[in-house]
Amino acid sequence: MWLKDSSIGRKFIMSITGLFLVLFLLFHGSMNICLVIDDLFGTAGYNWICEMLGANWYAIIGTLVLALGVVVHFCYAFYLTIQNRRARGNDRYAIEARQEGVDWASKNMLVLGIIVIGFLCLHFYNMWWKMQFAELTGIHTSMFDPADGSAIVKALFTDGWCGIIYCLLYIVWLVALWFHLSHGIWSALHTLGWSNLIWLKRIKVIGTIFATLTVGLFMVVDVYFLGVNICSMIG
Amino acid sequence: MATKKQNTQVITPEMAKIPAGPLEKKWTNYKDHQKLVNPANKRRLDIIVVGTGLAGASAAASLAEMGFNVLNFCIQDSPRRAHSIAAQGGINAAKNYQNDGDSVYRLYYDTIKGGDYRAREANVYRLAEVSNNIIDQCVAQGVPFAREYGGLLDNRSFGGAQVSRTFYAKGQTGQQLLLGAYSALSRQIGKGKVKMYTRYEMLDIVMIKDENGEERARGIIARNLVTGRIERFFAHAVVIGSGGYGNTFFLSTNAMASNGSAAMQMYRHGAYFANPCYAQIHPTCIPKHGDFQSKLTLMSESLRNDGRIWVPKKLEDAKKLQAGEIKGRDIPEEDRDYYLERRYPAFGNLVPRDVASRAAKERCDKGYGVNNTGLAVFLDFSDAIQRLGKDVVAQKYGNLFQMYEKIVDENPYENPMMIFPAIHYTMGGIWVDYELQTSVKGLFCIGEANFSDHGANRLGASALMQGLADGYFVLPYTIQNYLSDQIGVPRMSTDLPEFAEAEKKVQEKIDRLMKIQGKRSVDSIHKELGLIMWDFVGMGRTAEGLKTAIEKIDAIKKEFWTNVYIPGEAGTLNNELEKALRLSDFIEIGRLMAVDALNREESCGGHFREEYQTEEGEALRQDDKFSYVSCWKYTGEDSEPELIKEPLDYEFTERKTRNYKA
Amino acid sequence: MDNYINIKVRVWRQAGPKAQGHFETYELNHIFQGASFLEMIDILNEQLIAEHKDPIAFDHDCREGICGMCSMYVNGHPHGPDSAITTCQLHMRKFHDGETITVEPWRSRAFPVIKDLMVDRQAYDKIMQAGGFVSVNTGGVPDANAIAIPKPVADEAMDAASCIGCGACAAACKNGSAMLFVAAKVSQLALLPQGKIEAATRAKNMLAKMDELGFGNCTNTGACAAECPKSVSLANIARLNREYLCAKFKD
Question: Residue A151: what pLDDT?
């Protein structure tokens, strides 16, 4: 099977799953913005979307597909890295200098990916476990109603010192995610062949804009609650 | 024993297998009547091709496509690295795409005139004839020649021609043509029709007598450069495309490993060495900058399309330049001597290479040199930059300018380039007949390694043409005329005593070298040889100087064989041993060049005897006495070679004094 | 202005393919900055020979930056700390007095060390043999001007074709991938009408050979193009991807 046995095939899988996850992130980020809006204007957009997604078969399938995307992306990443390390040979260079014009992120995608995955677990515990999972299984693990996702988020991020630490942790995560995406998006497009002498520069810009936009959406929520929390702590 | 009389042996046109008939019909006639080998028999025949340059790679690929089994050898780690790759400027063809009146005849005429009427008419005409096929072939292979906006092929002009017939691919034409041939070769290697041996160096040719007692080339002895092992290879015919011997001068534009050893091995087996003294000095090289220098870098002749060559008019300006007090751009226009335009108004900066080189030497000898050694002239683009704009100049020559800047650390857009002549190409080489077969049966020689097409001087962009002509379009035909008799010869075992004997001789030579354990490194002796060659067998030669050179070379030979030091073991990778083996042959070639130059009492093309020049300092040929190819026959290790002459009777072309003035 | 400098050269010495390698440091005095890097190595070798030591084995030939034979990893860069050149075109003016220069061979599983700084790059030839050609025999081809090719296309093909097969791309790649090399050839021939006919099979065959020979997977770091002595563009890799994916989906 060429998707497993050829290098471009493997990269194709990485690109497709990666782009799929980026699209999900963009959606998720947009959804999160509702949290801020809700908090400012007293609306209930976030919970309304949660309800829409809710606990139905579509959502389960959606979630499973998403999970599959993550798992495939993750497994291929390790597979590629093991192969690539082997291709490098046993002897390493004594001195490796940085090349001009080569992003730091591009050479550290696995490390960045692991950071992202690590935080993803935390995120699952904090949010998904308490919301969709709880709703699906009926096992309630927190004091909040699983349908009131908005409250869960707010509670976590504005919980005094604990909230600040969570906010900061999420910022670290988002920074890692930004670096991962800043290379990942254009690299995926490049691998899919959507590049040439002119578009090479353009897709790099597009990739950076996309990464910034996606991460920015999450960041806004994070920083907003951090601000709210600090304000409430101060006085 | 024959008494020493003046009756030197003569090679007749029949012996050189030149077909009868009018000039333009000879090649067609030949092809119509030559013997061919049928496909079933081709599979039973093995051919060794030594070298993977333009000639070697194209021959190996073409022969394999036809169905022969080919064994191909090269000393580099890949066939793509042969030194043809470094040719910059372009390749000539008589396409007349520019509608400037070009034709096969005109290309023939320019080539034979450029060679100062010292080449065979029939060969040169054939070369011009097949030149067009070469361009077609290369384009079909995907060689990205430069194109005009209409999508058709572009041309530029080169020295010695008044038409634009040079096809080019940026400043990397040789590279692109070689990669074309290499890709064709790769295809045949992939198909298993060519067995490729990289990092192998041929050390001898194996001769085996046929049933009539006639010796034929039947294989080679080669050293695996990685393991140091000596190996034996059989073939029904051996083709040598090993390039020129310019590195005899140590400093040349040749690659470091380019050598004349294959030629010397052929010579020792009875192949004639023809016109060894015809060596081309290229006018546009980056000047020498130190004793540690390992090679000279060529700047393409195409630069002379737009660059103007000059030195200061006033000696005091030259003195200031030499002292580094002023730069070229500081000298006002009226104080510049554009000496080529002054001396040769019709061709100007585009005179042939030999003429341009000598003119530069003449100016520098008079003290007008422009760098600290006094051995450089300016090549100035300020006019072109003004006329065409910096962008156009950069587009045309950008990579050459970049190369110059990297080496010299000076920006050629702002200050004129400095150039000086350097050894570049050897027109002389192993004598071959019209079929490219040497005087040894079954031994063929192609490309720069043979002597055939350039006479006493080669025009720019003709080397690529000749290499590919030999490899794609000439040898694959002519070799069949020989092989058609060989179809009954079975593959021979390399255990035959002839193979064992040849290997033993090679081993003995290596052992002898390794045992010397003297004090001098190979390079130090080679540099000494190079200086002698440059001083006495270089651009201006005299009888006295040449005699001195022979004496000095003999002394170097003695020094080499008693005082060279080779570290390490022979049975392993040993670069110093490789260099020593090559140097032992360079010493012999250097001597042969001097002997030939001494014999040729005239000036023609790249061979300039100071005794034979016009009052204006132009080369003076002696057609009545020296209108022949000097073929040198090996007579033994310590005896003088025997001169055999192939008269050059010009049947179709009138010989004139070369005139690039009007 | 070029001056004379004193330097230390830390060179990887390895007696053979299976031998254990190590660094050795040599002192060199009074080196002219106008000398090329390889001329400096020549001087070092002359010094070693004079001391009856084994000279450093290294690949080099044309010394004009075109044959692709020279292959040294100097101070962390293939072909050293200068842009768009090969090792032979690197000059000592790029180094300063008292500097220690580290010289290593290309390191990649597909390029095993033969001796010292010399590596075996036959893998590149094998990739070429798998499909780096247009299948035409000698003779019987149409006139060179029979097919017009737009100048921008011809120019782009030429830029891709300027690859010298030195191996710097795979040596620079943290993944040991030869994608830029393969992409350059696939691009050149896919751009030109002569090569388009076989473009799909060529991309598949050359890539399969590259994978088979143990080169790594490209992750578009761009180190290859940044270190390429002929500045072959990364965009070629996208074209190879495109050719390959299209070919596979057509299958």
Answer: 86
Contact (CB<8Å) A7/C211: yes
Task: Categorize the per-residue pLDDT at A157 as very low, low, confident or very high, splitting at 50, 70 and 90.
Answer: confident
Q: Which residues of C touch B99 (CB under 8 A)?
A: none
Mutate to test the interface with C, among A4, A8, A88, A102 (most CBs of C within 10 A): A8
Residues from chain B that touch C32, judged by Cβ atoms under 8 A, are 290, 292
Q: Among A53-62, B188-197, C4-13, C54-63, where is mean pLDDT lowest?
A: A53-62
B150 and chain C in contact, CB less than 8 A: yes
Domain with residues C122-250, CATH architecture: Orthogonal Bundle (1.10)
DSSP calls for B274-318: E-TT-EEEEEEEPPP--TT-----B--GGGGGT-EEEEESSHHHH
Interface of A with C (CB under 8 A): 2, 5-12, 80, 83-84, 86-97, 99-103, 106-107, 109, 183, 186-187, 190-197, 199-200
**A63 domain residue, yes or no:** yes
Answer whether residue A98 is part of any domain: no
Question: Is the confidence at residue B508, as pLDDT, over 50?
Answer: yes
Q: How confident is the model at residue B5 (pLDDT cuts 50, 70, 90)?
A: very low
Q: Which residues of B are catalytic?
A: 353
Q: How far apart are CA C248 and CA A90, in angstroms?
A: 33
Whether the per-residue pLDDT at B7 is higher than 70: the answer is: no
Show the domain range for A196.
2-88+104-234
Residue A137 lies in a domain: yes
Q: Which of B186, B188, B296 to mutate to test the interface with C (most CBs of C within 10 A)?
A: B186
pLDDT number for residue B2: 41
Is B151 close to C149, i.e. CB distance below 8 A? yes
Write down the CATH number for the domain with range C4-114.
3.10.20.30
Each residue's pLDDT tens digit, C108-148: 999 999 999 999 999 999 999 999 999 999 999 999 999 99
CA-based nearest distance B149→chain C, Å: 5
Q: Per-residue pLDDT tens for B203-254?
A: 999 999 999 999 999 999 999 999 999 999 999 999 999 999 999 999 999 9
Is residue A221 exposed (0-12), middle (13-18) or buried (19+ Cβ within 10 Å)?
buried
Is A110 within the bounds of a domain? yes
**So what's the pLDDT on residue B6?**
53
CATH number at residue A218: 1.20.1300.10
CB-CB under 8 Å, C134 with B141: yes
* Parts of chain C with a pLDDT under 50: none
Which domains does chain B possess? 284-423 (3.90.700.10), 497-633 (1.20.58.100)
Mean per-residue pLDDT of chain B:
95
Is the pLDDT at A144 greater than 80? The verdict is no
Q: Where are the domains of chain C?
A: 4-114, 122-250
* Beta bridge partners of residue B133, listed in sequence order: none
Q: Give the phi and the psi of residue B405 in degrees, each rounded to 5.
A: -65, -40
Give the residue ranges of DSSP H helices in B310-349.
Answer: 315-323, 339-343
User: How many CA atoms are closer than 13 Å to the CA of B513, on its beta-carbon side?
Assistant: 26
- A9-38 residue pLDDT tens: 999 999 999 999 999 999 999 999 999 999
How many domains in chain A?
Answer: 1
C206-209: long-range contacts (C-beta < 8 A, 24 or more apart)?
Answer: C206/C127, C206/C128, C206/C130, C206/C131, C206/C132, C206/C182, C207/A6, C207/A7, C207/A8, C207/C182, C207/C240, C207/C244, C208/A6, C208/C130, C209/C126, C209/C127, C209/C129, C209/C130, C209/C131
- How many other CB atoms sit within 10 Å of the CB of residue C15? 16
The ipTM value here is 0.98
Q: Are B475 and B30 in contact (CB under 8 A)?
A: no
pTM of the model: 0.96
